[in-house]
Amino acid sequence: MKIIAILLLFTLFSLSQQQTTSLSATTATYLGNVLVGVGVGSDSILVAGSGQVRAAGFVAKLDRQGRSILGSVSIPGNPTIARSAIINGALSIAVGTDSGFSVVDSNLRVSSVSAVGTVNSISIGGDGTVATLSGLELRVYSSSGQQISAHNMSFNHIGNVEVDSQSKTVYVLGDYNRRYNGGPVRVVAIYAYDYELKSTKWTDYDFPGQEMGNDLGDTTGQDIRVGKDGSLYFLGGPMGGNNLFRHSPKSLTVPANNIGIDDYNDEFNLRSQITSYIGKLQPATGDLIVGQYLLARITGTIRGNSLFPKFVDADEVGNVFFLGDSACCIKDRDNITISGQAIAPYSGGEVTLYGVSSTFKTRLTWVAFTKKGNNGDPRGVSVSKGVGALVLNVEADQDVVTVNALHDTHSGASGYLVVWTY
Prior knowledge:
The chain is mainly beta. The protein contains one helix and 36 strands.
């Protein structure tokens, strides 16, 4: 009986390892010259970018497996970033450009708004409200495209903006350059505003430099997103093991509820590498529900290495998916397969997809997509009801794994779309 029990445990462990190092992609394809964002709906996927599909900026509608383009539409300007939302049960995507933004619905109807300056960050809520950041200028627009409010942020570095239509809240993430005992330190901050940007509902982190004590590792803000489960998620970039994310976002005297699965979620044996932090917050108060560090480790050693956070999303039951840019190497990297295809040996920074359960206690997947060279530039991730999609961009000398591809080769810089089931 003992032998049977041991064999059963070993089998379960092996299956778990296989599941986390493999991804079941329904498609992995080159698409467009540049992709800037993606959204997954109940019956389709919307992808924003430029080139190849149409001469300039476009939004393309694909089936939920990503294998067929159902239609596309042009949008004005050069796309810079895109975010999606479910509005009245249907998928829409807001696309920031160098001249404003456009909102495109699942029927490929376009509404465009001109704005001053390039839109660097954008979000759309379930009521159609749009928030944008152009440099430090935060603007909020109604579903009809009328500007509701504007506010100049004082961040030194902007992360992203997010709209929560349930609570009529706009969240903004960034960081400040501050000083402790004469030395510089970057301090992350999150603000929750009403739609009119007249009052602050709550603030997270944003501690004065002189209160930092031993937490002198820089902390940056990268992405913030209301998950389809209603919780608020953010990505931070800590530098070194002593950083603010060890503590509650409300107090430096209260430990954070950080969950680690293994050494790749533990900030030890680091110097000044930038790693990642995933935080799950109560939207109404900003209180931390749970957090998790994420980092790479140099193969054959326990030395920590960089993993740059980029984008995050969560599905209806709180499964969280993270898109980042990793140095050598994520866990079990050499065992990774994409729909049965092994990836190429590590040769430089590479895009990585990480998935974790709602409790942050079970790893769902952790993969890369490398076929040739170091690659790519992550540009967005979206998940809903067992289907996920991500987009990134590669250069002419970079190749990634393709599966059931619309275009399985590229001659120059190209966008890349992966759709998977989980």
